Hints:
Layout: E1 4-8, E2 14-19, H1 20-26, E3 29-40, E4 46-53, E5 64-65, E6 68-71, H2 78-81, H3 83-89, E7 99-110, E8 113-125, E9 140-147, H4 148-155, E10 162-167, E11 173-176, H5 188-200
Parallel strand pairs: 3-8
Antiparallel strand pairs: 1-2, 3-4, 3-6, 4-5, 4-9, 7-8, 9-10, 10-11
Helix pairs in contact: 4-5
Amino acid sequence: MTEMLDIYDDNMKHIGVKSRADVHQDGDWHKVFHCWVIYRDDAGQDWVIIQKRAPSKKSFPNMLDVSAAGHYSAGETPREGMRELQEELGLLPCYEELIHIGTRITFSGYGGAKDREVADVYLYVCNQPLHDYCYQKEEITGLIALNVQQGLKLFAGEIETISVPCCGFDSNLLTITKEHFIDVPDHYWEKIFMLTTRCLNGENNLWI
């Protein structure tokens, strides 16, 4: 079945519906859902769940990416978009449990595609053990739990590698570098790491 997406002009006025393939071919603005699963452990350390994209993915295969993400089908709202949490991670939160932290606008190009996205970005606090996740193996190679402070040091260049807890790989620890993450120009990773701790400290009115 052809996946149809809503498309928008430069002022984010809805201008029609188009197939996902054509949207990326033509570089139309469209909307997506991002949700970062975060938690604080008993030792007071903060963590973010990150997925490794499957090698079969057309965009950014084998790269580390947001916990759960996906395109809205035509007519969908964020409430419907949160189905990505169930499809990709097996999680079933209520929409009211998600913490909206703003909208992220990006443009990227890869393999001839022009991807203009407007992402609704959310945090979801969930301390479920990593090996209890029922992740979508067709889309995701495995999951890692990234310590926020180590992530900040990695992106600041203070350390070069991190050994992270993981599931779906040959061992329970995976060594990663900054080059394993999808490269973005807007410091998205660092922003998420910092917002994770602020959220878990009980701050309100967080904004990406």
